[in-house]
Amino acid sequence: MAQNRKSFAGKVVLVGDGSCGKTCLLEVFKRNQFPEEYIPTVVDNFVKDVDIDENTRVSLTLWDTAGQEAYDAVRPMSYTGTDLVLLCYTIESQDTLPNITEKWLPEISNYCPNAGIFLIGLKKDIRDTIDPLVEQDKIVPTDLGKKIRNDNDLLDFYECSAKTGENVNNIFINSAKFIVQERSRTPSESRFPCCCYSDTGI
Prior knowledge:
Layout (H helix, E strand, L loop, with lengths): L5 E11 L5 H10 L11 E11 L2 E10 L18 E7 L7 H14 L4 E7 L19 H10 L4 E4 L8 H17 L18
Parallel strand pairs: 1-3, 1-4, 4-5, 5-6
Antiparallel strand pairs: 2-3
Family: Belongs to the small GTPase superfamily. Rho family.
InterPro entries: P-loop_NTPase (IPR027417), Small_GTP-bd (IPR005225), Small_GTPase (IPR001806), Small_GTPase_Rho (IPR003578)
Subcellular location: Cell membrane
């Protein structure tokens, strides 16, 4: 069976505002452990294999980036050769949403216009947490995330929680499926013929 295994490789970059939860998402996927302390990132990357089924393995090169404005000049170096961008935002505040269309989508379009884009709402657990520091009326509703995805023709949309692990693996499994689709298509086939890679998307 192993002799018939198909192997693929692809690059996935996570972008989004600073402290929105990108690094925690990657740490949970990488180590299956939620980091209790904040880990500031400039640029970091690692490779992890994802088995889609017993015959298909995808080596994902995953890049974490800094979202703060101070790193705007450094971040573009991470975009070279990107297959898929995970555009992340935090569910805990609608105040950050304008950056999706005003900053991140233009930046992605400029530096990796041929990459696919998944929209990822992070810190989903905040909806079920009573936290005096969180303004409940500013929490991003799921329907608003869906609207942003649809209005901007993004490939897929997920909400997840690195803290509880909810939907973390699904995001990267479907990222791997996207890589397989891209590597398997012929030159005459249209790019991104499908906008959802499994029923785990929202």
